[in-house]
Design brief:
There is one protein chain. By secondary structure, the protein is an alpha+beta fold. It has a domain of 71 residues. The protein has a three-stranded antiparallel β-sheet with strand order 2-1-3, with helices on one face. Helix 1 packs antiparallel against helix 2. The protein is elongated, with a radius of gyration of 21 Å. The two termini are 13 Å apart.
Length: 103
């Protein structure tokens, strides 16, 4: 059922999509994916360490292979960037479809 022109429901939907997208972007930035990076036989290796808040990184105890040296936790910037771009794409696609739907 289409709304009558001029009542602002399309604008309300745009605001809702933008607010939900912004909330999701902020949540993803505050609770990013982490990885454990270590050295094994002279080569850098990494393991996923899950999602943890920035203020509470993964615990220091990690399951790294025997003989691994220098384990460290880091934010997986590549995965986080892909996630942020995907949400931005979905948000802009939704806004485009909403704008196209309006008369």
């Amino acid at each position: 059922m289409r709304s009558a022109p001029g009542n602002g429901s399309g604008s309300a939907m745009n605001k809702l999509v933008r607010l939900l997208g912004l909330a999701l972007l902020i949540a993803m930035a505050l609770i990013p994916p982490w990885q454990t990076v270590y050295s094994l036989n002279g080569q850098k290796q990494s393991l996923s360490a899950g999602y943890h808040p920035l203020w509470s990184p993964p615990p220091a105890e990690v399951d790294v292979p025997e003989g691994a040296a220098d384990p460290a936790h880091r934010v997986n910037v590549v995965r986080l960037g892909i996630q942020l771009l995907a949400v931005l794409g979905l948000m802009n696609g939704s806004l485009y479809l909403l704008a196209k739907r309006e008369p």
